[in-house]
Hints:
By secondary structure, the chain is an alpha/beta fold. It has helices spanning 14-25, 37-44, 60-73, 103-124, 160-182, 200-205, 208-220, 224-235, 261-274; strands spanning 5-9, 29-34, 50-54, 79-82, 130-136, 187-193, 243-245.
Amino acid sequence: MGKLTIAITGANSGIGLRAARMMAADGHRVLALCRDPRRGAEAVATIERGELVAVDLADPASVDAAAAAVAARVERLDVLINNAAVFDQTVREAVITPAGHELFWATNHLGPFQLTALLSPLLAASPHPRVVNVASKGLLTMPRIRIRFDELDRPDWYTPTRAYYHAKLAQIMFTFTLAERGGGRLDATCVRVPSVRLDPGRVRALPPLLRALYAPKNRLAMPAERLGETYARLARGEGPAGGYLDENLHRVEAPAHARDPAARERLWDLSQQAVGDPCWAW
């Protein structure tokens, strides 16, 4: 396998940082897409050959600028890992972005959707392009979850847990449709991530009560380094080609709604419209 050019969002902490370090250590060129320029710069300083690209996935203009910055640096992109997500349980009420979308939906689905579209020409220039999206094992506790097509940005049904898993379901559906549209020219994979151990800094930033409640779960959660290895393996093309995989790269069954072709197509059309109808390479 030759050296790859890889872009990964949320590379300043957690799984994204560990994966970026591992992939860079293997000799690949890693573009670290981070929301906070200061924290991103600190992280990139620990990533061999890492390059910082600032992006706020909740801001369509920022996504446009980040995609343009990537295109100005590279002629092709071999792997895009849409890792970044927000799951801040202290956000008890819905936050609506300036673009008019609920924050978790904008960050965890619309932003990755828009970024993937804008980078698709660079991915199409790769001989073996790969897109890796990220869902959550927590969806197993919600077998009847559906996309709330008519309520996406309404605050009255919001809780951080509902909003998070709603967007993660959308990532599975997006992956399946992207693979179909790629017609064999694109390896699109969604990885089901289990509970991951938070970095000490993130734990300290939690409110005291939430920190105490989260401590037992955090001790039992999977280390970020272990999941970083999963990302790095996917970037190398290990495991089954495409589909919905667990952290060991075994195929797992997606929620029923994600397997509904009509629902997936409706989500694609809605997402396209929400991010300005970008052009795709496939």
